[in-house]
Amino acid sequence: MGDEVSLRRIAQLANPRVAARIDFPRFGAKVADEDKKHGKDRVSLEREKAAAEQLAEYDNAGMHVLPKVLQMWEGERREEKLVEGLSVEDAYVMRVLLSVARVHESKQEHIDSLPPFIMTDAEDMTLNGTYLLSGFANLHPMYTNKHGSVLLFDSNHWQLKRNPDIERSVDSEEHTVTTKAKGFMPPLGTWDTDGKPILSLQVDQKSQRHPYDNLTTERLSLGRGGTRLVGGATRGGVSLEELRRLYAWPGEKTCVDDAVLTLKNMGFHVSKILQSINMVGVNVGDILEHLTEDDSSVDEEEIEDGGEDDGVQAALEADIGQMHSSLEHGEEPR
Fold this sequence. Notes:
This protein is an alpha+beta fold. The protein has helices at residues 3-12, 16-21, 33-37, 42-60, 66-73, 79-83, 88-113, 240-246, 254-264, 270-280, 284-293, 300-304, 310-328; strands at 117-120, 129-137, 140-144, 150-154, 157-161, 176-178, 189-190, 198-201. An eight-stranded antiparallel β-sheet has the order 6-5-4-3-2-1-8-7, with no helix packed on it. Helix 1 crosses helix 7 and helix 10 packs across helix 11 (284-293). It starts with a helix and ends in a 6-residue tail after the last helix.
């Protein structure tokens, strides 16, 4: 690994869950049977290799940060402790490592704290129900429901993989339901496949169960015009508040708000911006590319329904306007 990549990986190793999610590139570490007997996991082995090779190399070159990195890996996050006794140059390196570690940890804490996802209205009932965080795949979180269906990022898109061993309520030779979404988090709202199922974040966190966890539960009867669904999703699309919840890192909601403000000031319609964030995430460059690729201003469904709900758009515009005013006056956005 190059020096910048090596330093970033050293920072990622400060948190085992971050290191497990971002598993490449890494300092080569394969858990052998003998290591398993001694209770060593891949992250522990990778730390040992990084300390013995990369950090020892830095030490020989005059960058003496190994003891402080080991402290950071053990859980120390106080800057004053991690730079104490270091030269100006070494203290700078440790501050950079600590800053990178905090950013990754903040994002990981957000992933771990999100409520479960709820899938409803799929024709195949084994796809419906509560999806809990079950691990990571391809640098993204992965979720599984009680039927063994998996919500994961694969082949550069979000997918649902059916459990091939379970008898399904509909005939299907395909075990994978694929979307066009490629953001960091799975897309909320209606999926244009398999009966147009709807994915949402669970609102009531008192219970991690959902009626669709029971295969005998009947499907919801949905009307047109943005009928409100379990978990907060609507047929009309995803809301600004839902995206704030989905992408509220590092510890704030401003990553979504900033993207909306930037692109709104470039002349794009707020609802289109929200749709693009839902599909590609909060990177402004990715959103802009998605918006310019999807340059149709009104689709067939909007024409059939009489166009976009002006009240919804007005509410979005008011929310963005209020946030913009708060930022101009130095206030934190609500």
